[in-house]
Amino acid sequence: MDIFEKIIANAGPLGRYADAGHGYYSFPKLEGQISNRMIFRGKECIVWSLNNYLGLANHPEVREADTRGAADWGMGYPMGARMMSGQTEYHLELERQLAEFEGKEAAYLLNYGYMGMVSIIDSLLDRHDVVVYDSEAHACILDGLRLHIGKRFVYPHNDMESFEKQLVRAKKLTDETGGGILVITEGVYGMSGDLGNLKDMLAFKEKYNFRLLIDDAHGFGTMGSHGKGTSEHQQVMEKVDVYFGTFAKAMAGIGAFVASDKPIIKSLAYKMRSQIYAKSLPMPMVVGALKRLELIKTKPELREKLWTIVNALQSGLKENGFNIGNTASPVTPVFLKGSVDEATQMVYDLRQNYGVFCSIVIYPVIPKGLLMLRLIPTAVHTLEDVNYTIDTFKIIKQKLDSGVYSTGNIPDVAEQF
User: Fold this and answer.
1) Contacts by 161-169, CB closer than 8 A, 24 or more apart
2) At what angle do helices 283-298 and 300-319 cross, to 10 degrees?
């Protein structure tokens, strides 16, 4: 079969909706300054889809730092990969501050979080090692595991009984091969908003002699009394062996970092293919990240404002009978019952008639018959935004339950690909 014919015939679970929804349900264009309200197809909407947790995307000090970094250095400097010609004092200073913030001996910058996590996993393991990981691990973790030629054992999400069973299997195997065990979890799970059971998992560490890597993309900057992440929130910072955080969420930037013991970070710096063979993080992003980290450390009111909005939104939804699952973070899922066709009409109604823009999650990401509206509250949202959104959700849920969205008349909203 011709490879192009095969690609067209097998669009995949999301690609098959492209003809009906491209540019609206997928690849939508939000216009205007990043904020709680933006323009979608000519109309102002309250936007609940941006990971701008602390409102730093358009914070005046951040904008000034970004502008200064671009003016002083341009987007090209430094040229080349870190190992060859991309090293600067600014990169080293940001790494020093990140390591200190996370209570680790050293840290290393990553161009992008996704590629960085893939390379971290690949670089930490050899064929004798065994990985134990959560069933709801992010795609970057799963892609990293695809590169691992050794064994990997998965346990159902946050199921500690199964987790120990997989550790028993892993220890038996590594006792025979001489390999080690790496446990991978997330701090905050980005879809459901619940937390990895770090404290419970670490209770098994001495018995099974594993190392723990956590992906804390959604926890860094938002969780813990100082914003140091989910490990701070659960009071286990010193027991986490490898900490991964990204700049794309709370810091509203680009890039990421990994923090651990000095020998481990040195090893990663010399092994991570996604960094060795890629351009160093451009200077404006490094200068901007230094300012963002400074604000996380010195402006606790940003995190306090975020949690004021989070608590108002989540408590308001629950009080009005909405199912928000087990979230213990800013990530706020709203679970409803309905079909994919009903989901498209409901989201169209939300955006066009009520001016509320949030992400919709459908099968195969979640089981058939369920719909999930995913809301990301931020420090720039207002209580007015919260109250209006909850009132709107009450209306659309009533419509959904009464069959208003089951007509089958899906709006033709697709743009030309």
Assistant:
1) 163/132, 163/201, 163/204, 164/204, 166/132, 167/132, 167/204, 167/207, 167/208, 167/210, 168/208, 169/130
2) 70
User: CATH number, domain at 87?
Assistant: 3.40.640.10
Contacts of range 92-97, beta carbons closer than 8 Å, 24 or more positions apart? 93/290, 94/257, 94/286, 94/289, 94/290, 94/293, 95/257, 97/290, 97/293
pLDDT greater than 70 at residue 206: yes
Q: Is residue 190 within 8 Å of 230, Cβ to Cβ? A: no
Q: How many domains does the chain have?
A: 2
Task: Tell whether 311 and 329 lie within a shared domain.
Answer: yes
Tokens of 42: 């000519």
Q: Is the pLDDT of residue 411 over 70?
A: no
- Do 344 and 272 lie in a common domain? no
Residue 346: which residues within 8 A CB-CB, separation 6 or more? 338, 360, 371, 396, 399, 400, 405
User: Is the residue at 414 inside a domain?
Assistant: no
- pLDDT tens figures, 253-311: 999 999 999 999 999 999 999 999 999 999 999 999 999 999 999 999 999 999 999 99
In sequence order, the 6+-apart residues with CB closer than 8 A to the CB of 311 are none
Do residue 110 and residue 137 come from a single domain? Answer: yes
Q: How far is it, in rounded angstroms, from Cα 91 to Cα 102?
A: 17
Mean pLDDT of 11-40: 83
pLDDT bracket for residue 361 (50, 70, 90): confident
Q: Are 209 and 346 contained in the same domain?
A: no
Flag whether 224 is in a domain. yes
Q: What is the CATH number of the domain that holds 311?
A: 3.90.1150.10
pLDDT of 62 higher than 90: yes
Is the model's pLDDT at 118 over the cut of 90?
yes
**Token pair belonging to 363:** 């099968």
CA 274 vs CA 110, 222, 249, 278, 358: distances in Å:
8, 27, 21, 6, 32
Higher per-residue confidence, 362 vs 179:
179
Residues in the chain, total: 417
Q: List the domain range (segments joined by +) for residue 269.
A: 58-298
- Which amino acid is residue 233, in one-letter code? H
Q: Is residue 408 part of a domain?
A: no
- Whether 3 is covered by a domain: the verdict is no
Q: Is residue 187 located within the same domain as residue 249? A: yes
